[in-house]
User: Which sequence fits this backbone?
């Protein structure tokens, strides 16, 4: 909506304030500035507000708005007077307004930094979190316009509004004056206000997914009159799954007298149904989808699954059609899975929903699966089905124009039916938010991700996302920092998911190997070493081993305190006549499952070669008694949550995590052993790789239970305000959007405000200047070029070290210019020698998609060629800094490799934290490079530094809650 000419020409309509938001009950609404065109909407809205709510707003009976009121509430300058409205279906359901005031409460203009704020929410929409969302947005608008405080007068009886202000998390003051509660809110975001905002975001987005995944009624719009076709297939799958709610078939071409189809009530429109419909599956051609969406929206449908193709995957025209679809659906408060979706499945016994094109619902289980590709979804469902795995929920989101993997992470975080989240992603619409949500979810249950389209420029059609500049290896490192298990293929995802869903997490990397094949045991042993595990010598049970021998050996291995996990290898028994016997798979499976259920809780994986029925029998989870799986409040923090029949809410690591194989039940009574699934693999490498991922994830869980922190002592040596002032001065009042590199002296000055000292360098445009510089600095010195093509390239001969005197310096200067070119091209400098040590590189960059990234590696071509660089998201904690320098492959060089003296890693960690603080405190610092950083046995020396400033990039993970627009 655009302003009319009556609006102030000096302050254009701020369209960036428009936002779609998810409300507390999972519905959506739109927040936008109020304009002069809204007079009729405002009057209509006010007429639907109760007298009591009007009294709370105006402190007196106020039955209707006068023409003067309407003019005042619809005319704003978008600076000193701002009004926002919440709309659904184009009509107002709530408004908020602020007026800038001075210290006496009179209307004012800048530089006054306080404003009076007032809300009004239609009674029918109170309790949906509308006012809380409005407060977030109006506060962000006020901060943008230089307002730092809100003042509000609230009647004591208006408890709902008082609670909105009280629960927002802002610093506030309250007093009672003249029969009203006077509230003052400091609008500067706090840790509490951010936590409140994110908690509300989680609840709202999880609820919006729940409305889709657990509907009470489903209508298939586009059900074909003849067998076959997309709509008829979905209807058939709904019926076959035994959906517990009401099902309707909708097709505008149905005859007026057609009452049913496949035994389901048939209607020509949603409006004809006459009963509430929670979910509509849309399977009509793209050009008819808008009509279907309107029909759904006007009759209260809560969400859509759009299977129709012909959207952004078809180019620019389709992309605009897709955006209009999202705008239309959200205007009615609906969320969308799709378009071009494959559908969704919920195996909960209370729902039994298969609103997808999958012909069969997978077995119920503890795995949640999200994909952005229908083809990959089919492959994953097939693979899980063959392996006997069960799913809690399955979603194939297609172009994911609205509902995305982030939304399902919000849902799975608190879903008691899901123990493991598997995601196949081809793009990340909001990488910062994904990392935040994945970290929180991974703290209570594993998150396994396959990232398709990993190479630059290969984002699938239909996925309009921010373009990142960081390589895929960096993305992988950042995911692991967040606790995400990143694997390369969907096969590896299934392998890891099966182990994580059905087995407890290992306490460490020690692996016992046992089986009836020495060769297969050795292959497993080698695979463990390759994956960084610590295998024990394989135990060969010989080819004559019986299932009872396997059971006893497994029980013994599980009872061994020096074992954290067990891999069982098995080949078919060979009879006396030399023929393989493969019919004892069920017997062997029973023996292994009994040993695993009665022994200590440790993960078990089986590697088998052509043993008929073994994998199927291991995957069939049965119990000797119908009892809930035991939950112990004192379970260690590194235990996974295995399949359980009772709801276990998300908890902090270490609280109420299920433990497999417990010997006591509720109240201390003996528990009947539960025979859970044991994952089986056709190759040792696959089993060991899945186990290695579980070991690394368990280690991350243990560390995440006690998060790192930024040491407070850094605050004493950091001049944040001085750095901010200097950055403002360097950028100037009208900064170039492309930014600007700082000169050497400017960079050194800025870094110095964060306690980072760069060793001085002096220019040497000729030999005499070099000699003068060396005399000033003191011998020995280094002579090096600073030309861009030679910087940090000692291998090209652009550096001369340990120059001890004037004669040596003049000789080195001549050699340098004779070899590489004129001084004007080389730009030589002289620098005093630093103590000997290991040359390293510290960098920080702002990626438009991922955010600020801190990187570390050794200096030199080998590290660059091998990509041996570690990365962490900013802000980095003390633990991140310690892990950063230890996670590169060349890390042993820092810790006394081949008898060398270990370097001062504590000083290096401190430097990393200082760089992290600099870019975190000042988003205008878009790039920092310290190269080389020579780390000695005591202390370190920064020999080179470069800094680039630019206007701060937009942050999609901060500010008020809003749905993305792709």
Assistant:
């Amino acid at each position: 909506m655009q302003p009319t000419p009556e609006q102030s020409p000096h302050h254009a309509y701020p369209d960036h304030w428009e936002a779609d938001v998810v409300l507390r009950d999972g519905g959506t609404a739109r927040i936008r500035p109020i304009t002069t065109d809204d007079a009729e909407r405002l009057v209509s809205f006010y007429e639907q507000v109760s007298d009591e709510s009007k009294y709370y707003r105006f402190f007196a009976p106020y039955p209707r708005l006068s023409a003067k009121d309407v003019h005042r509430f619809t005319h704003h300058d978008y600076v000193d007077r701002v009004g926002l409205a919440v709309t659904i279906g184009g009509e107002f359901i709530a408004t908020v307004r602020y007026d800038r005031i001075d210290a006496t409460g009179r209307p004012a203009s800048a530089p006054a930094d306080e404003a009076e704020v007032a809300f009004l929410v239609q009674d029918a929409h109170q309790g949906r979190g509308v006012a809380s969302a409005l407060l977030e947005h109006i506060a962000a608008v006020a901060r943008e316009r230089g307002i730092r405080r809100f003042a509000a007068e609230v009647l004591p009886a208006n408890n709902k509004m008082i609670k909105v202000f009280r629960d927002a998390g802002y610093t506030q003051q309250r007093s009672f004056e003249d029969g009203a509660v006077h509230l003052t809110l400091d609008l500067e975001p706090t840790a509490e206000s951010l936590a409140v905002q994110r908690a509300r975001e989680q609840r709202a987005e999880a609820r919006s997914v729940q409305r889709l995944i657990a509907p009470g009624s489903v209508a298939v719009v586009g059900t074909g009159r003849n067998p076959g076709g997309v709509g008829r297939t979905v209807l058939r799958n709904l019926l076959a799954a035994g959906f517990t709610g009401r099902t309707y078939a909708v097709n505008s071409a149905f005859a007026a007298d057609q009452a049913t189809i496949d035994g389901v009530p048939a209607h020509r429109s949603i409006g004809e149904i006459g009963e509430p419909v929670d979910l509509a599956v849309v399977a009509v051609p793209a050009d008819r989808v808008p009509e279907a969406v309107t029909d759904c929206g006007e009759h209260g449908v809560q969400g859509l699954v759009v299977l129709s193709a012909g959207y952004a995957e078809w180019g620019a025209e389709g992309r605009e059609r897709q955006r209009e679809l999202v705008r239309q659906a959200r205007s009615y408060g609906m969320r969308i899975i799709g378009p071009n979706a494959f559908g969704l499945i919920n195996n909960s016994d209370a729902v039994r929903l298969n609103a997808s094109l999958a012909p069969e619902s997978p077995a119920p289980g503890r795995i949640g699966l999200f994909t952005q590709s229908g083809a990959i979804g089919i492959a994953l469902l097939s693979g899980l089905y063959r392996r006997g795995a069960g799913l809690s929920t399955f979603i194939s989101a297609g172009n994911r124009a609205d509902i995305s993997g982030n939304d399902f992470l919000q849902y799975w975080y608190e879903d008691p039916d899901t123990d493991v989240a598997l995601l196949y992603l081809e793009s990340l619409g909001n990488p910062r938010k994904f990392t935040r949500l994945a970290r929180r979810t991974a703290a209570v249950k594993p998150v396994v991700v396959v990232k398709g389209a990993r190479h630059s420029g290969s984002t699938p059609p239909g996925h309009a996302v921010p373009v990142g500049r960081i390589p895929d290896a960096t993305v992988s490192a950042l995911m692991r920092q967040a606790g995400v298990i990143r694997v390369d293929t969907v096969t590896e995802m299934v392998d890891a998911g099966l182990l994580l869903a059905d087995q407890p997490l290992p306490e460490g990397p020690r692996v016992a190997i046992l089986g009836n094949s020495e060769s297969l045991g050795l292959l497993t042993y080698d695979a463990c070493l390759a994956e960084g595990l610590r295998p024990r010598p394989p135990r060969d049970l010989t080819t004559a081993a019986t299932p009872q021998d396997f059971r006893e050996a497994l029980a013994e291995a599980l009872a061994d305190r020096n074992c954290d996990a067990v891999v069982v290898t098995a080949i078919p028994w060979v009879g006396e006549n030399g023929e393989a016997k493969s019919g004892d798979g069920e017997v062997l499976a029973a023996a292994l499952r009994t040993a695993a259920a009665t022994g200590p809780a440790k993960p078990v994986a089986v590697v088998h070669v052509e043993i008929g029925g073994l994998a199927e029998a291991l995957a069939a989870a049965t119990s000797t008694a119908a009892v809930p799986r035991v939950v112990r409040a004192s379970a260690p923090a590194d235990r996974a949550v295995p399949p359980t029949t009772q709801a276990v809410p998300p908890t902090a690591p270490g609280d109420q995590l299920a433990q497999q194989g417990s010997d006591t039940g509720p109240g201390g009574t003996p528990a009947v052993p539960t025979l859970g699934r044991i994952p089986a693999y056709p190759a040792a490498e696959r089993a060991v790789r899945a186990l290695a991922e579980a070991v690394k994830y368990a280690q991350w869980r243990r560390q995440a239970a006690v998060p790192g922190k930024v040491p407070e002592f850094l605050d004493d040596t950091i001049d944040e305000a001085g750095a901010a002032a200097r950055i403002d001065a360097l950028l100037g009042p009208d900064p170039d959007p492309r930014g600007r590199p700082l000169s050497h002296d400017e960079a050194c000055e800025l870094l110095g405000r964060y306690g980072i000292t760069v060793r001085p360098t002096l220019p040497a445009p000729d030999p005499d200047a070099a000699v003068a510089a060396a005399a000033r600095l003191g011998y020995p010195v280094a002579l090096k070029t600073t030309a861009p093509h030679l910087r940090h390239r000692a291998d090209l001969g652009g550096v001369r070290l340990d120059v001890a005197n004037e004669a040596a310096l003049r000789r080195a200067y001549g050699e340098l210019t004779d070899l590489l070119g004129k001084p004007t091209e080389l730009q030589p400098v002289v620098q005093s020698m630093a103590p000997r040590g290991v040359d390293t590189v510290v960098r920080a960059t702002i990626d438009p998609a991922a955010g600020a990234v801190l990187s570390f590696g050794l200096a030199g071509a080998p590290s660059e060629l091998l990509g041996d660089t570690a990365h962490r998201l900013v802000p980095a904690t003390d633990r991140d800094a310690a892990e950063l320098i230890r996670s590169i492959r060349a890390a042993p060089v820092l810790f006394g490799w081949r008898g060398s003296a270990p370097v001062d890693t504590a000083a290096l960690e401190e430097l990393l934290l200082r760089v992290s603080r600099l870019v975190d405190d000042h988003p205008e610092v878009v790039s920092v490079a310290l190269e080389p950083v020579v780390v000695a046995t005591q202390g370190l020396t920064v020999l080179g530094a470069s800094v680039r400033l630019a206007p701060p990039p937009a942050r999609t993970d901060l500010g008020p809650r809003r749905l993305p627009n792709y």
Observations:
- The chain has a mean pLDDT of 87.
- The longest helix spans residues 191-213.
- The radius of gyration is 33 Å.
